[in-house]
Specification:
The structure holds 2 protein chains of 2 kinds. Chain A is of the alpha+beta class. Helix content of chain A is about 55%, strand content about 15%. Chain A is built from 21 helices and 11 strands. Chain A has helices at about 20-35, 35-40, 60-65, 90-95, 95-110, 115-130, 135-145, 180-195, 225-230, 240-245, 255-270, 275-280, 285-305, 310-315, 315-340, 345-365, 370-385, 400-420, 425-435, 440, 445-450; strands at about 5-10, 75-80, 85-90, 150-155, 170-175, 195, 210-225, 235, 250-255, 395, 395-400. In chain A, strands 1, 4, 5, 7, 8 and 9 form a 6-stranded mixed sheet that branches. In chain A, strands 2-3 form a two-stranded antiparallel sheet. In chain A, a hairpin with a 5-residue loop joins β2 (about 75-80) and β3. In chain A, α6 (about 115-130) runs antiparallel to α7, α11 packs across α13 (about 285-305) and α17 packs across α19. The longest helix of chain A is centred in the last third of the chain and has 24 residues, at about 345-365. The radius of gyration of chain A is 22 Å and the shape is globular. In chain B, a hairpin with a 2-residue loop joins β6 and β7. Chain B is α/β, with parallel strands linked by helices. Chain B has 3 helices and 7 strands; from the N terminus they run βααββββαββ. Chain B is elongated, with a radius of gyration of 21 Å. The chains are: A alpha+beta, B alpha/beta. The interface of A and B includes residues 339, 344, 402, 406 and 407 of A.
Chain lengths: ~450, ~160
């Protein structure tokens, strides 16, 4: 099959023993084996990808789900039977043949490992793929003691379902923990978590901060949706009720982040900012700024989980959710700067990289519709910065005013948090209509040619 | 006006930690790295010798750290453990309100600052601003784009 969604990263010297290397080989094979399943799910032409019949409307699906709730399950595909009625087929049945191969590779890896907890993790994951017991497997993974080797594999993110934001896509990654980077990231995370917020907290807010695990990985492979989106981080699970019960695991993909920085964030920086302005910021400072954007995004996510947001905001949820997480994370840096934990220059580098990442999402969204919510979300922020005078553009050159930009971030953060905690679908639509225009990106299009 | 060297403010415990680190680096690490360099030299051709390069780089970092610690030790000013006072001093643990958030941390000398342990340097913007304040007092602090009113809620 052509254009298989697999990205193998050329990583060396990850400090594995011979037996660990064998385990990793099996896991990488397992990750590769789910790529054809994702290929069957993806379809850029339809908002519902291949999760639903292409002639079915959202209304028809929602009506059918009233008598058969499994139609909206994250783990079923919806088809028409011979009479034209909508029916659901669980993934583990629909893709049985492919998943048996994946499952068998996971079992082979489990037999090799000397770490009993990790072996159990792999056996549970193998079971989940063939019998649909995803929750048991995911919860064991989240609550187990972190192990140097990590694999996540199965139907996880809902970004491809732009019709109803219900169905999960198959994806996988394999990584090796980077202890030093993990330790540094945890300091920023803990410093932000330690702050006790005075604001009124809704009962719908999911509280799980004491059960949050974080790791920075050297990634070896992406498969499925991850390979298409080339994501730089992930938080699992996605269901706030499960988060509250078991906690979350946040993973940063150092390898893909570095590739994105070198191939997109930094080249974008070089073409959209005025050359005199660039002299004040070293490449290493900006690289760290790029990493911290991702780190702050995931920290923001963990602080802004409300159980009913998805229900209220429907398919607009990911736009508001992804933007509010990053903006809240950057806002939190204010106290780090005042406490001397982060320098003013480092905060500026974070804001610069926020802008460059916005353009990256826009470029990526032209090829991959699943990342469009990120592009729309970041457009809201850029348009807000233009409106408050933080950004000025003439002939495609930006002159950021960091004072105004940080003020804009604080304003946006408050507005987005209100939206995600208690806003309605109409409220979200209004914000997107007012600020979500891609014109802000296309103004810079001529400078960005060749960076796709 | 004669140049006045900056003092490094340390608690007794902080000074002990620095002395211990200094002894470890000078008595254990330094001989180890010297030996590594000697062995690497024996591998031959220094231009293509990655072990030699790595050892030399480590030596450079080690000597920088030793020099810093010597500087700190020569200019250390020991402060007593903070007793309960009515105003913020180095060593005070404070509870403050910043931008509708409540923060709790201890103000320490810059060498002992450790965000993982909620120890904030007396030279940080917040540290500088809080020293001498009493519970109930408010002060405004700004660094570049970040500005905040800080109210002292409690001094522990």
């Amino acid at each position: 099959m052509s254009d298989l969604p697999i990205v193998v990263f050329p990583i060396k010297n990850v400090g594995l023993s011979k037996s660990e290397s064998k385990i990793v080989e099996k896991l990488v094979e397992a990750a590769k084996s789910i790529a054809p399943i994702y290929q069957k799910q993806e379809n850029q032409k339809f908002p519902g990808a291949n999760f639903y019949p292409h002639d079915a409307t959202a209304e028809e699906i929602l009506v059918a789900a009233k008598s058969n709730p499994e139609i909206l399950s994250p783990y079923t595909i919806v088809e028409r039977n011979k009479t034209g009625k909508l029916v659901s087929v669980p993934y583990h049945i629909k893709f049985k043949k492919d998943l048996e191969k994946t499952s068998s590779l996971l079992r082979e890896a489990a037999k090799i490992t000397e770490n009993k907890e990790f072996a159990r993790r792999l056996y549970l994951q193998a079971d989940a793929l063939t019998d649909g017991s995803y929750e048991i497997s995911d919860m064991y993974w989240i609550t187990m003691k972190p192990y140097k080797i990590d694999i996540v594999i199965g139907p996880l993110d809902k970004l491809d379902d732009r019709l109803l934001f219900k169905k999960t896509s198959f994806e996988a990654w394999v990584g090796i923990i980077d202890e030093e980077r993990t330790k540094k990231a945890k300091i920023i995370q803990q410093t932000i978590y330690d702050v006790r917020r005075k604001i009124f907290t809704l009962t719908e807010k999911a509280d799980f901060l004491d059960k949050t695990q974080l790791r920075v990985d050297k990634t070896l492979i992406f498969s499925g949706l991850f390979a298409r989106g080339m994501f730089t981080s992930n938080s699992l699970p996605v269901d706030p009720n499960l988060m509250e019960k078991y906690g979350i695991e946040i993973t940063f993909f150092d390898t893909s982040l570095d590739i994105k920085f070198e191939s997109q964030h930094y080249p974008i920086y070089k073409v959209i900012f005025e050359s005199k302005f660039q002299k004040d910021y070293s490449k290493d400072l900006l690289r760290e700024g790029s990493f911290r954007n991702v780190l702050l995004h995931e920290i923001g996510h963990s602080l802004l989980r409300y159980k009913d947001s998805e229900r209220r905001l429907k398919e607009l949820f990911p736009v508001i959710d992804e933007l509010s997480a990053t903006i809240y994370g950057i806002k939190s840096c204010g106290s780090l700067v005042l406490k001397g934990i982060m320098s003013e220059k480092e905060l500026e580098a974070i804001m610069i990289m926020f802008i460059c990442r916005a353009f990256t999402w826009w470029i990526d969204s032209k090829k991959q519709k699943s990342v469009e919510p990120y592009a729309v979300g970041h457009a809201i922020a850029l348009n807000h910065f233009l409106a408050n005078g933080a950004l000025k553009e003439a002939g495609g050159i930006s002159w950021p005013n960091f004072n105004k930009m940080f003020l804009g971030i604080e304003e946006l953060s408050d507005a987005l948090e209100a939206l995600i905690s208690m806003g309605t679908y109409a409220d979200a639509q209004q914000v997107i209509d007012k600020y979500g225009s891609f014109v802000v990106y296309s103004k810079f299009a001529s400078r960005l040619r060749g960076l796709g | 006006m004669p140049f006045m060297a900056k003092k490094f403010i340390l608690t007794k415990e902080g000074l002990m930690q620095i002395k211990t680190e200094y002894d470890q680096l000078t008595n254990v690490k330094r001989p180890q790295i010297t030996q590594r360099i000697q062995i690497a030299r024996e591998f031959g051709d220094l231009a293509e010798n990655s072990e030699y390069d790595a050892a030399k780089e480590e030596q450079s970092l080690l000597e920088t750290r030793i020099a810093l610690l010597e500087d700190v030790l020569s200019r250390a000013q020991i402060i007593e453990q903070a007793k309960k006072t009515d105003f913020v001093v180095i060593g005070s643990t404070v509870v403050v309100e910043m931008n509708d958030e409540v923060h709790k941390f201890t103000i320490v000398g810059s060498m002992e600052a450790d965000p993982a342990l909620k120890k904030i340097s007396n030279e940080s913007p917040v540290g500088k601003a809080l020293l001498g304040l009493q519970a109930g007092e408010t002060i405004e602090v700004s660094v570049g784009p970040v500005r905040s009113k800080i109210k002292v809620l409690e001094i522990q």
